[in-house]
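We emphasize that the prediction below concerns an isolated chain of 243 residues; any contacts that depend on oligomerization or on bound cofactors are therefore not represented. The input was used exactly as deposited, without trimming of termini.
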Amino acid sequence: MEGRRFVSAGRRGKGLILNLDDGSRIVIRFGMTGQLIVVPDGFPEEKHTHVVFDLEDGRHMWYIDPRMFGKVWHIPSGMEDTVTGLQKLGPEPFDGDLDWKYLKGRLGNRSVTVKEALLDQSVVAGIGNIWSDEMLFRARICPETPCCRMSDAKWRKLAEQIPSVMEFGIEKNAITPEEYLKGKGREYYDIDYLEAYGHEGDPCPRCGKPFVRSVLGGRSSFWCPHCQRKPHNILLKDGMKPL
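Result of the prediction step, given as a token string:
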């Protein structure tokens, strides 16, 4: 890669694609804790920096990843991408083909919860834990609802909220390069503008009832038990009584 120039940048799902002048590309999937920052020469060394790109103007581009869940690939020009997993991703949140019929067709017969389904990158690319909670809250859908129990009306509401919430998140997360560097790529959102995520015990902005927290697929989900009611045949944890 020495002597190559970056000519453009793109994205697929949560993967960053950096295109080089020889037709090759760098693909980065950040996992849970990966960050990419461009720092001036002499910037204090950051722990867990695993990849360093030295730039011609004296700056450096660091890939930092404390838990090392992410990956970085260099794919030569003309080589098919068979390693990054980007080729297996579902449609983007803003794709025209992503409508309620697509969601129902992919998920309507599955018993997995709708929260876990939203995090399946092969169904929809790019939705993470935070924004899935926001989508379900706005659509008034309990995250514990099995996909096979979702009505057409709920699939419609969810399909409407997916691009809407993602657009909202992009707008709210807008940040200058200086702010991004100051936060070292980690401080890019403020919980205050999130309506559901992280608000366990806080009053729901719609009804005032306290938010609760569930763990689904190993991930925390925050939701309002009044506005996002469970289907009647989902059993409660305490006593296993149906609602």
